[in-house]
Write a structure and sequence with these properties.
This protein has helices at 36-47, 77-92, 139-159, 173-178, 194-206, 233-245, 270-278, 310-317, 328-332, 336-341, 355-358; strands spanning 8-10, 13-15, 19-21, 52-54, 58-59, 97-102, 121-122, 135-136, 163-170, 212-221, 250-254, 282-285, 290-291, 305-306, 323-326. The protein is an alpha/beta fold. The two termini are 35 Å apart. Bound molecules: flavin mononucleotide.
Amino acid sequence: MTTLTTPLTVRATTLANRVVLAPMGVGHSEKGVPDEHLRAFYRRRAQNGVGLLISGATFIDHSSASNHVLLPSIASTAAQVSWQRIVADVHAEGAPMLLQIEHAGVDRDPRSSLDLCGRVLSPSGIDHRGHSHGDEMSLADIHEVIDAFARSATVAQRLGFDGVEVHGAHGFLIDQFLWDATNHREDEYGEPSRFAVDVIQAIRAATNDDFIISFRWSQWKLHDYSARIANDITQLDKLLRPIAAAGVDLFHASTRRWWEPLFPSSPLTAAGWTKKMTGKPTIAAGSIATTGPSFDSVFEGQGAEATTPADAVARMQQNEFDLIAVGRPLLGDPEWASKMLSERFDDIGDFDARSLVDLH
Ligand SMILES: Cc1cc2nc3c(=O)[nH]c(=O)nc-3n(C[C@H](O)[C@H](O)[C@H](O)COP(=O)(O)O)c2cc1C
């Protein structure tokens, strides 16, 4: 029977257990370069039993990709040197690590982003409210950004990462193609999954056979928690199946509350449907080990009460999904995974939003 301590092999990499550090952008990356605090943050999680680390969203090597000067990038030599040290530390502790790669799309104000002169690019030159912002991508822009995703993945491979997680969630560029509110195109990229498929295929073609590709998707957007890219099973199947076939090894379903049924017709969760439709190993995420408000409350300074992930583990044992990603609890307590795996539940404290500032 699968438990939290059951290993899982994805391509050539064996994860020692089922606990994943959820991707979290926690700053500490002035001009896109991860600093020593961020390096120590990852090393401590690897030292303390996390089965797979996923970096916070990291901007790909394109002048239009970034939306924040304090979030990491993979573009500069300084950033690459820093990532190489981080992944070497994590490997020295015996854990694998994926780099989450992102392009912010329309969600970008060049004045507060890396690359002041970079353009604002998106499928239709509109934001989530339909307001004009930046440029609709030409076919040449699209091909250039796909190349930048592939190039960035090959850099990640060279730096030692075990793979990449393609950020297709939360309303950023790839998700802007998946969502009909932001994709009004009439060419082939009006087909919602087409851009994601091309990105995955380009990464697959550019990287070696051992390199893992994870794909993160979500219904919700940072600017609209009630948004949906799929209203029913057929629509979701049409989105995810071609993305899986393009070369994804691992899916990651991002929700704010993992247990909520994705569609009213069945109790199956977003992770459950993802695994059922794609047949791929799938990570569940969203309030897996906390009660109370969902993760966004962090940005208003709110904490959350710790719980055990027993319900999620039970669903994992029924084969609904394969891994659990934990955000806030691992932000608050670097030893969360080792305490959980050794059943020292009483040693786990509640999550305090100050950990986001302290980053210990
Ligand atoms: C401070 C913070 C930063 C985050 N940054 C990212 C990110 O860079 N990429 C991403 O896909 N999700 C990001 N998330 C969402 C988390 O990956 C996770 O899905 C969310 O926190 C829910 O898990 P939790 O309830 O265990 O915290 C972030 C969450 C937090 C709290």
